[in-house]
Records
---
Amino acid sequence: MKKLGLIINPIAGMGGRVGLKGTDGEETLKMALKLGAKPWAEDRAKEALKQLLLLKDRVELITYPKKMGENASLSCSFTPKVIGELKGEKTTAEDTKRAADEMRVLGVDLLLFVGGDGTARDIYDAIDRSLVVLGIPAGVKVFSAVFAVNPVVAGELARLFLMGEIREVVDAEVLDIDEELFRRGKLSTRLYGYLKIPVKRGYTSGSKSTTPMSERYNKEEIAAEILDEMSDEYYYIIGPGTTTKVIMEFLNLDYSLLGVDIIHKKKLVGKDLNEKEILETIRGRKAKIIVTPIGGQGYLFGRGNQQISPKVIREVGKDNIIIVSTRNKLRSLSRRTLLVDTGSEILDKELSGYYRVVTGYRERAIFKVSNRVED
Amino acid sequence: MMRKGDFKLRNFHEARWSEPIIFELSRKGERGIIVPEVEKEIEELVGDGVSVLPEHMIRRDPPRLPEISQVRVLRHYLRLSQETLGATLNIDIGQGTCTMKYNPIINDLLANSPKVTELHPLQDVDTIQGALEIMYKLDLFLRELSGFSRFTFQPGGGSHAIFTIISIIHKYHELRGEGEKRDEIITTLLSHPSNAAAPAVKGYRVISLYPNESGLVDVEALEKAVSERTAGFIVTNPEDTGIFNPRIKEFTKIVHGVGGLCAYDQANANGLLGIIRAVDCGFDLGFFNLHKTFSSPHGCGGPAVGAVGVTDRLVDFLPIPIVEYNGEKYYLNYDLSHSIGKVREFYGVFPVILRAYSWIMSLGAEGIREVARVAVLNNNYVMKRILSEVKCASISFPKTKQRIEQVRYSFEKLREDTGITSEDVIRRMADFGFHLWTSHHPWIIPEPFTIEPTESYSKDDLDKYLETLKRVVEEAYETPEKLKNAPHNCPIHKIRPEFLEDPERWAITWRAYLKKREKWE
């Protein structure tokens, strides 16, 4: 019998309804409650579970007590196996992490979690890529690519995956958004890590969709193309992400998945560098930037790769930016443009325009880069 | 005419025969035909026929064909035909991009007459003047419709025609000493996928122009793509969304500006016949599908004809031979100085050429224009009803209102509301004897479905189809499990897509099936 794990972050999304842009931290939660916020994560879970009723007797549902999954499961007439225990009424990030870890030990086939980016981060901290997971969006910030479009779709996707009708699994980005800055109207993100999610065309929010040829092959094609064109004259600044790092794998180089590395003559010059180190390395030298947009909204600069700062971009020059992206990532962006938000308005404007994006071996796409979100 | 309240869902049920594969029906020693012994006199005169063959050409083992009697062969294929939903059985407007139209039976009668079936391609041309005349005149008709100077009928289908076009572009630049320098072909993401695939096979680098939010390609995107490396530009217009690029003349001008050639994939020409001509849009070459647009049946991957037309300066590059007329006699001309050679044996699939010729002759110039007008009218009628009556359906790229002969729709809202996908809807439509189809690769439209009503269907037909679609969508909200478990009235239930994505499970031949079967079990 297949095992399905369910973890609900009961407070997810409560801050959003009352305009707090998130519910991270105890103070914020108090504030949210004071402003009259009501929990809705459980309702979101139920919407998804209803899609799974057909499998009720064929799947073992494993969940955490009460608000973290038990209540929702029972009210949808599942008979869940309830594990773990809660210390009190209030749940914290630690509960989410502990629950995820216990599910890992039990070897669930799929772990459904209800929450937002913060919840996704907790899950990632606990289990990394050891389980296939899927997020049911209930948070205020749902920028990560690990979430289904909505709960109904999450339930349907889970059903197809558990029935074996979908087998393809990809790494999807977990983004870390600084909630403090977000509240002040600034979006500052970094790429926090990757979770494994099942995929079917159009089911996950702004994330990758898939075709018979896997994402992996596509990334290898891109790496082969980059290596074919690579010149010893240049220093290559390799941005974060699983697409760009296949180049490093092909060269048998050590690399940082979430950081910025530099290579020259196909050798590693610097790993996980910050802005200052990048500038020092390329000063007075010819350099190119290899960068891939971050899932969903399609940010090229300014999300997850702030080390490649306006200064670095100016030093390298617009013509030396090489954009790489798998076809599916490019095609499933929520808009039909890529976005730049480097922190310098003038530079953003200069960077906008049309680019040749490397999408495969001997293959390019002409794609627009925009400096603002268009309607 | 269908009146309101008239509509009743059809109580349909397809036959189910659980019919084995023909190889499994084979019984050792059973025969459909007993080949007569060679008469003694003949054998004395010409020998036994086999001993004159060179040793290495004689097969050691007999071919492993099924051994089966005639009556069982007939039964087998009739049963299979009852398990399929052909174009002549249903109101076939749901197979968008394929231009499903009525294929007049009289044209089949002509194509099946012994005058056609007994022709041999190596006959003396004096004895096939009629066939050559038909080829020559069909060429003239297509020239009228496109403005091109010459056509070849050799390619056996649309993608084959695209490959022929790319080969001509290649040879053209090679002859000018630019073959190596010009190594890029530009196309659009929403053109037919073969527009990108064929150049890749030929060794070109492929640049795809992505659509903007209106479903159109920006001129600036093309400007970014062109360079002294551009060999050519190939585009489908209207694309499979049904959207026509109204700035196409600017596009071809920009490509010509850098020395590239422009090719027109006119597989979607049904709404434009007699309305616009490829040459007037600035194209140097292009193709029509004589199957689909010109009413020859599809034949599921052939036999078909992708008729490639070219402007004056490219006539010499066409595959040989082409049919010529010297005022007295039709003949085959093998003397084209830069011909890319042959792309298929002989001259093209003649029965397909004949059907297209006959179809055009029966319509005349005004009739052909009428085809386009009615196809566009039907399409816009269906779109209007879907948008106003099927609330959970939308059109892709709604910012652009114009649609020519087909529309790519989306059931994204339906899926978000109910979890029902376009594939679920499609399987449920089959329960009522209707077909509906999703989309070509790439799937950039969520939950896509594509409808192309063509000129063959009456308003009554269209209404019946739409009423069924509406009922199925209502069911999606009321009893979604009916759709999830569909079809209920068809012999083939769900096809598990993961098998299609796993080469280890593909069995194109019986031999491959036998080899791979063990691994699956």
---
Amino acid sequence: MKAASEMRDLANRLIAYEGGAGNGSEPMGSPTLRVYEKLRQSLGEFVGVAGFQSLATRALTLARPEAPSLSAALVTADGALKGLGKTENRFDNGSDLAGEGGVILIARLLGLLRIFIGEALTLSLLRNAWPGEVFDDRNSENGRKA
Amino acid sequence: MSTQDKVTINKLPTGVPGLDEIVGGGLPEFSFNIIAGAPGSGKTTLAHQFVFANASLERPALYFTVLGESAIKMLRYQQQYTFFDPAKLPGSIRFINLSQVVLEKDLGAVLEEITKEVEKANPSVVVVDSFRTMVRKPNSDMDLQSFIQRLALFLASWQATTFLIGEYAEDELRDNPIFTVADGLFWLRQTAERNSIVRKLQIIKMRGQDSVPGLHTFRITDAGVQAFSRTFGLTARKRNPPSNRRLCFGIPELDKMLDGGVREGDSVLIAGSSGTGKSVLATQFIAEGISHGEPGIVAVFEERPEAYAERATSLGLDLETPQKDGKLTILYLRPLDLSVDETMQSILDAVENIGAKRLVIDSLAGFEMALSPGFRADFRESLYRMIFALTGIGVTILSTVEVDESFTEFPFSTYSISFLCDDILRLRYVSIDEGHSRV
């Protein structure tokens, strides 16, 4: 089963936003990692470190079959993500070292949230971490409402 | 000190239907409250209703989860309730997980974390769910009582209204020093009685205002907790002065015998054996009232409203049109696990909705059977409270009751509730010229 296209779209939009907002040449400057860290921070606040770590580990397990590049990635005990992009390094200007694997991982994480707490609440929580325009339909890749 | 010199304590809506009246008009602002009860008794749901009713962007609510139900599952389940507004998260309502601090540090660190978040957010409402899990943490530098004491002082100073949620068994209530700190103590319980579950809540303590004493039943539905006050929410309402107006049946000879009808605000009992015409008489009473512009309510327990209306049609009485016109409500109350208080709330809501003047309860035996077994033991006392409350607001009640016929006795009721009635109409069979007639 693949990550739902809506979640991939949303993940792409979050990553694209971070790509435009940060410096992609530093490791933590990877847009995917920045999205992940923002999720870790905002979700960790209410689900706790252990709660986020469990979710992220599950998301990684679900994402690996779709993205071999995630084989070296792991979620540490404090919920941090290590090893992302080790087999898929792309430091070209404007591109993300995490590549497609990162998109799938984020999509899986968002998908899990949607499964557990529903779309409305998931978007409410995301809106607290990202500005509203990220969720604007006009920024949607396929025009689908996020 | 004169009334105007006293400080005014603002009362906040609890967000729980029926509970504002029970706590004395609302929850005192800046109070420090404990919700105690066994697992599954509705503590978290009640706290959520309060949070959703009071949190705003300017003065948000902070909901600290400790050890216990994970926040993500709590949100998964709680959002099923109709009061849950996802748009309030996380701007107006923030969930903060403290489990790591509790697991890795001591109560002092927990207090420090709460303090930091409160100072940052300036919340109007703070919930700690569940503080009881922190008690079980050994080797803490700070004991729980000291933690609660300092938390209460801090949160009051920061003008927050607080709920601490804890799992407590009944026998832990006595002599527990933690409860002395609280301004309000809510006790929720659920007990199995025969095959029914009965939920009750008690306000053991409410500083600063009069709460309604005693055990109040409550139910958890898709709308959350709904409480039913023992006083039926009528404590603030004035009793109507006795009226001399007569309400007729539309049966000339009977009305003549009754000096024009039953007195408005009376409780009337129609007693008789099966088939003597109790329900027919009750239906005529309601239909006659409607024809005089007096809306009515029929509470049926033994048959469905459709069947009741159809039977009336076969007697030439139209109950369909007044139902459509909002002049009549036929209440069919879900049988088998009701409390009188819930029944009463349904009737009161209907009275309010259509401005009912006449109420038929058909029948008392059916009503009793619809109650949870635990409430049947208190049926007489419950009827007394119900009839007193309803007649007090000017509703005329007509109840039917079946009694056994015999040649040697002439009972009025099997319930010994004659003291609840102002008038009794007794129907019976008589044998005339080798045939049976009703009188």
---
Amino acid sequence: MKYLLVMIVGLLLGAVAAGAVLYYNPLTEADGPEPAAADRALHYDLSAQMLGLSLGERALLPSLEQRDTQLWEDTIDRTALMGLVLRDDANQPVAVASRLLVGSASTDLLLHGVLLSDYWLLTFPDEGTLFVRVDTNVWPFLKQALLPVWFFNQPWHGPVEFRPTAGPGAQSTAIVIGASGKFGGVEGSAVERYRVTTLDRASNKAEAVGELHLHFFPPQVAAEQPTPGDG
Amino acid sequence: MRAAFFIAVLLGFSGVLAAAHFAPWMRHARLPSQTEVVATGGRAERFLIRLPVDRIEASGVAASPLRAPPGAPGLALPAELSAKPLLVEHFKVRDAAGNVIGLAARHWTSEGRGAGSAWSVLIPSRGALLLTAPGEGKAALDGALQKVGYHPGSAWSGTTAVPAVNVELTPREGGEVTAGSDEFDKLGGSYKEVWKVTGVSESGELRGTIELDTITRRGS
């Protein structure tokens, strides 16, 4: 009996220590790449320029307030769908984005954090459409903002900036694929950065502004094939 | 006793870390894929969208009054974009058996060289597909329905002789499976998009089915 008690206390202590390691684990808190000079820098405001938001029944963390949702089926109840207006540096609306979000199977609480697969379909009217494939690490946001303020009623010490892009492209950037119009055949990378400006559970209010920086790769030129007898 | 305590601590510590690393934290419900092998190679799969129940929201009345009717759940575009050639639609997606399996966004726009359309189809348990095609003409669906007697502002239904109007929005050679992720990664192929409209309500709400017939191949 005494052994059993010691074993249980030991297991609990070990589990608590591991929980502390996970909570303060620098591997899962690493910021994404810093946006560099971009071919296109697009800005959004989640409070003012959100066209629409549909959250799956189980897309939110437990006890977060749920909205009436159309996304109730088992197969899509952990997804979210967001429509956004994007503005250029001169604050003019230039594009519309549809973001399809879902929890990623690559989520690894020890090495990578809580990952979302975030698919942007991004259309510039009169120009064309781009597809942006992003792995987004939301663990820093959960840890620094949502959990303390929403679940533990701590005061909000914002604004807080996050760089959540965690791949799947080179140097942890997102992948850009041209879909139509002048972007057809274009490839590139992207990085997102956002700043949570307001988070208040009492008024059920969350506000954030963000940026998506697009960088297009130069077109690949096929290497010239040597002809027989050359050289 | 001391050894047992330290072994238990080690077990608790490593057990939690192992669970953090190996547990499938984001597992999504999956239904059997309704795919068929194509004789010429590849895999055929049909995705369905039932209208109006699967339409989540839409915007772009200037591009197609029927596909983004004023009374339907909509995305309110700012004035600077509302007159532009832009159509944004969000749907639920079903498999060939009619089960909801994912979400999709469809964008349409036109520029100097012509129109272009793109679908982003997300199936949580399988990944995402990007489908692209030269887009249909402006208000193509509206025009096709008006040819069979639909008048804006009034209801229209298919007849026994012509129960539905089939409008193919991809060109004859089909659209292209441009990119994908997870299960759809590194797949290429083609697709056809057909809108089978059986009716339109007075408020402009469409009834019918959108069929996305894809044929995917590895590395094509």
